[in-house]
Design a protein that fits this description.
single chain, 403 residues, alpha+beta, extended
Length: 403
């Protein structure tokens, strides 16, 4: 039995006893100090004895550099990566072969990449990043990064910047368009105020007309600022799913009642058809109300006076579908894909004269996306436009809050 006790344990016991003896001598025979020393040494014995003498059998040893599968690691990288030896491609991962062709192994890298900027960069031996346009497709943008791996080896990494560039362009265009849209009414307001401050302000009729124009332009700026703030809020909540159960039929009825007194006599042209026993939807009540107001308001603005604005709500296969149709001038097919872009207008002059901000359908698109729905716009020139929004109905087991 004694033979089964490891040598290390005996050594730990011996060290602990010796330590206790030394402490006892130095303490001058103080019993409390000796007991404390013995307790500490006992703990030391337990700690030493419980440390395993060697790694468990199933513990994998650290791999050596030679055992690491570098080529397999390169294959797993989603972006194109090349390894060059003396300027020729000796390794190309799957992404590089898909972009540049399966034949690039063994080729001169300047021929394989087929871009003048890349050829110059590789010839110079520079290691700073360089931007390249047109590899793959004409509108694709890449950033090429290189690094030396040794005297003759070089790593080339191509980073796709297409989406980042497109997002930056959208941001720049958005800021430019917003600035222009705000500057136009502001310039008009300042001009008329300056005129009113001069002699024109003494003519009651002229003063009243100019003040009316200033008021209209100020309201136009107010609508634009409200839409910009609304769009910003919706985008901020884009990835936060709504959790409230909403009665969409009630929202449609309320919106049509509210809009029936706007746009002159167009309220009489609204034709509302609501199916019975419609399921609720999971959504944000305020945003869905805004969506309905935007769609019905657009149909009233752009449809021909005296023609019906048809608003219907129906349920199909666990979805609820809202359709708004007008009988207006219609929209040419080439404009349809861009209707939901910010500030895009088919007829800018007419849109501004009717009080449009150019953000209504962009707001609708973002609301539909947040609610995981679908937006379809069809139109025929001379006939009219039809907009359909399909939203998933609330499921019986959905974790929702009653609105």
């Amino acid at each position: 039995m004694i033979d089964e006790i490891p040598l290390r344990t005996w050594l730990a016991v011996a060290i602990a006893v010796a330590t206790a003896a030394v402490v006892l001598v130095l303490s001058g025979g103080d019993g409390q100090t000796a007991l404390a020393a013995l307790a500490g040494c006992a703990a030391l014995v337990v700690i030493i004895a419980t440390i395993p003498e060697e790694l468990p059998a199933d513990a994998a040893p650290e791999p050596t550099r030679a055992e690491i599968p570098y080529e397999a690691a390169l294959e797993a990288i989603a972006e194109p990566v090349l390894v060059l030896r003396a300027g020729r491609v000796v390794v190309a991962n799957a992404a590089a072969r898909a972009l540049l062709g399966q034949h690039i192994l063994g080729e001169d890298a300047r021929v394989a990449i087929r871009h003048p900027g890349a050829a110059d960069h590789l010839a110079d031996g520079a290691e700073h990043p360089v931007d390249l346009v047109g590899i793959g497709t004409l509108d694709q943008r890449w950033q090429m990064r290189t690094a030396a791996l040794g005297p003759a080896l070089r790593l080339v990494h191509l980073v796709d910047q297409t989406n980042q560039y497109a997002a930056e362009r959208m941001r720049v265009d958005f800021v430019a368009n917003a600035s222009h849209e705000l500057r136009t009414p502001l310039a008009s307001i300042l001009g008329y105020v300056e005129t009113l401050a001069d002699a024109a302000g003494e003519d009651p009729g002229l003063r009243q007309r100019f003040l009316g124009i200033v008021f209209d332009e100020a309201r136009r700026m107010e609508r634009l600022v409200e839409d910009l703030m609304s769009l910003s809020r919706i985008e901020a909540e884009k990835f936060r799913l709504p959790r409230a159960e909403v009665d969409l039929a009630g929202l449609v009825q309320d919106a049509c009642d509210s809009l029936s007194t706007t746009h002159g006599n167009r309220g009489d042209d609204i034709r509302l058809a609501l199916a019975e026993d419609l399921p609720r939807v999971v959504g944000d009540q305020a945003q869905l109300s805004q969506l309905i107001h935007n769609l019905v308001g657009n149909a009233m603005k752009y449809g021909r006076a005296g023609t019906p604005v048809e608003v219907s709500l129906s349920g199909v296969d666990r979805t609820v579908c809202l359709v708004v149709a007008d009988q207006g001038e219609g929209i040419a097919p080439e404009h349809l894909p861009r209707l939901t872009e910010r500030f895009y207008r088919v007829d800018p002059g007419r849109s501004r004269s009717l009080g449009g901000t150019g953000l209504g359908l962009a707001i609708v698109k973002h609301i539909v996306e947040r609610h995981r729905g679908r937006l379809d716009i069809t139109s025929q020139v001379g006939v009219g436009t039809r907009v359909a929004v399909t939203l998933p109905a609330a499921g019986p087991d959905a974790a929702v809050i009653k609105a």
